[in-house]
Amino acid sequence: MAVPYKLLRTTGSLANKSTLKVVLDEYGTVGIATLAKLIDKATTMTKADLVGALEALKTEMVNQLMDGNRVHLPGLGYFSLSVKGELYEDPRSHKFRLRNAYVRTVNFRPDKQLLKELSYARFENRTYSSETCTMPTDEEIAAALAHLFAESPLILVGDLQSALHISRPMAYRLSRRLESDGKLRNVGSRYRKMFVKGER
Prior knowledge:
With 200 residues, the chain is α+β, with helices and mostly antiparallel strands. Helix content is 36%, strand content 26%. It has 3 domains: 25 residues, no CATH class; 91 residues, HU Protein, Chain A; 60 residues, Orthogonal Bundle (Arc Repressor Mutant, subunit A).
């Protein structure tokens, strides 16, 4: 297997720096069920062992991160919190603090061992493959949305990808455009978007 990528023209502020950018044309997302099945075949661990271990690991990682610690998983890398909030200056002490602080994301820094193993990855240019490399027309998009919403009041990015036969990165770009145009409205989270019909 090879990592598929496409070369796309840059837009916006990036256009001044380079005419083309590399975008991974991801095959899809591999979940715990698939990983458990593969690990079950390769080791003495059962699916239940793996799922239980991962659940326990997640719980402990959350606890450690919320205590302000960085978590290191040997062979994988380091996990740490990225925090955001409103910068506030106390009028009396003139000291700064964060107000309404929240976890923006979880930072990940891979171990050198992981990067070394990934250095053997092969890459495949799918820019000029037989698959569609351009964004679908407005008519195709409208027809796909009508079909998807006729089947369910809620759609995901993967539904757009399947209905329009486009790559996952392109589906994400399209969903952002449709959301900006008011044709889709996100009722999920920032990182797990679920769309209903927009007002336009």
